[in-house]
Structure formats: C-alpha cells, structure tokens
Amino acid sequence: METLVNDPVEKRRGVAFIAHPHPLHGGSMDNKVVQTLAKTAYGLGMVVVRPNFRGVGQSEGAYDRGAGESGDMLEIIRFVMGHYEGLPVYLAGFSFGAYVQHQVAAQLPHERLLLVAPAVNLYAFHSIPSGTLLVHGERDELVPLEAVRRFADASGATLSVIAGADHYFHKKLKELAVIVEDAWRC
Q: What total of structural domains would you count in the chain?
C-alpha cells in the first residue's frame, strides 16, 4: 500500500490516519480535503499517515467496497503504531474514507474519530462512538445534510455544519481546518 508519513519528530502528540474519498471516482491521498486534514493534524504535532487505497496510485489491488480497504487500513495502523508505541491514534476520513474509518474505529482503540462528509446515504454505517465529530457541508450535493443530521442524532455524534459548503468544500477548506484544529487541539 502506497502510504505517505509526515512526522514532526520533536513534538509528536499523536498519530493521525486519514482515509481518502472513493477510489473509483478519483479519490486519493492527494485529495484537497485529505491534504487539509493532514496539514491541520501535522500543525498540531501529529504524525500524519495517508495511504492510497487498493488500485490507487502505487497501491496494488482492486476496489473492495470498503471491506478490503478497512482491513488494509487496520494493517497499516498496526504496522505504523509499532514505530510510535504509546501515542494516541486519531482517525479521520472524507466521504468514502469516512465509511472506512468508521469500520476501523469499531475494531481499534482510538482517541478521536472525525468523519468529514460521511456518505451515510450510500453505505451502511453502523454505530459510532459518542463524541465522534461529523463535519458536513450545508449544500452537499451528494450526501444530504438531513441524512447526516439523522445519523448524528441517532449515534450521539457532534455535527458541525459549514455554511455554504458543498461536498468537496470548495472555498471552505479554511473553515474545515479551523473546526478540525479546535476538535483535535486538546
């Protein structure tokens, strides 16, 4: 699995694993939302890990509807955490990546879970830990805000809505970064 790791070395305070949007629709570790999450986490002193899912970039394999991608992410986390024992794990995912990370969170101890534009209308999301932060665009054209609101209410998650933002947060990445920074600063 092709994976980028950015390590602040001297001021490590956690390890953030960030999952990208749908691989069959151009999603990759280089997606602008994923990069925004990565830069924000790195600025907070976290080691940032961004893999490309199966069949994306230099990663081998083929799209597996979230099952294989979740398994791959778990293996990456286990491998990476062997080098950063004792640091807390932070999970973040955008769109399809949110679906992957919600599955990972059910199988792995973690400090925080952040789901950005979670595609709750396209995938079978199950329960998530209370305290999970959902960030969604008010004008998301792919995932209706009301579907995310219902999911947040049912799961006890916190929902932060970015006014005027679409699914890809065009011209709203700074607002996204501020929300993530506030949530993960502690």
A: 1
Which uninterrupted H or E stretch holds 20? none
- Is 151 within 8 Å of 134 (Cβ atoms)? yes
Angstrom distances, CA of residue 105 to CA of 18, 123, 126, 164: 12, 16, 11, 29
Classify residue 158 as left (phi > 0), alpha (psi -120 to 50) or beta: beta
- pLDDT tens digits for range 92-111: 999 999 999 999 999 999 99
Instruction: Decide if 175 is inside a domain.
Output: yes
Contacts of 37 (CB under 8 A, 6+ apart): 16, 18, 92, 94, 114, 116, 176, 180
Q: What is the CATH number of the domain that holds 65?
A: 3.40.50.1820
DSSP secondary-structure letter at 91? E
Is 186 part of any domain?
no
Please state, rounded to an integer, the average pLDDT across all residues of the chain: 97
Residue in the block written with tokens 């209706």: 144
Q: Which domain holds residue 143?
A: 3-181
- The model's pLDDT over 43-77, given as tens digits with 9 standing for 90+, comes to 999 999 999 999 999 999 999 999 999 999 999 99
Per-residue pLDDT tens digits for 137-185: 999 999 999 999 999 999 999 999 999 999 999 999 999 999 999 999 8
Please report whether residue 63 resides in a domain: yes
